[in-house]
Amino acid sequence: MSGRVVVIGVGNPLRGDDGAGPAVVEALRGRVPDDTVLTVSDGEPARMLDLWRGADTVVVVEALRTRSGRPGELHTLTPEEVAGHPAGTASTHAFGLAECLALAEALGRLPQKLVVHAVEVADVALGAGLSEAVRSALPELTDRVAARVRQAYEGS
């Protein structure tokens, strides 16, 4: 194992709560080991696969909309759980994370370990800032991601 750890904040800060992923990546600066790759993506599958190329552990931070969720609710999902969400619910993007993971699997490019930490959205309107529910959930979401990064370096 090379030990390469990549954290990808998926989203668009100009679309309300969809900016949660990039906000967590920014909050992680200085809180995780320096050799952790912290990056942001719009979620386009080919770019995602390029971002995690060669990584042993990938942590994806994503905005999520489920039918039964409430804004600010946090989720930790395995790739299998992401794949099990109905189309359009596991992401706020045109091509969702489930499609990205399916492509990675088909191409043999899934990392050894991948986990998704997500927050349930309230509003993804263009130009809106983070909702109060999501803003309030960001410290715990950031803590969860930082803990997962530490676990990756400890080998668990």
From TrEMBL:
GO terms for biological process: protein processing. GO terms for molecular function: aspartic-type endopeptidase activity; enzyme activator activity. The keyword Hydrolase applies. Keywords: Aspartyl protease, Hydrolase, Protease. The keyword Cell wall biogenesis/degradation does not apply. SUPFAM superfamilies: HybD-like (SSF53163). It holds the Pfam family HycI. Belongs to the peptidase A31 family. PANTHER family: HYDROGENASE 1 MATURATION PROTEASE, HYDROGENASE 2 MATURATION PROTEASE. This is Hydrogenase maturation protease. The lineage of its organism: Bacteria, Bacillati, Actinomycetota, Actinomycetes, Kitasatosporales.
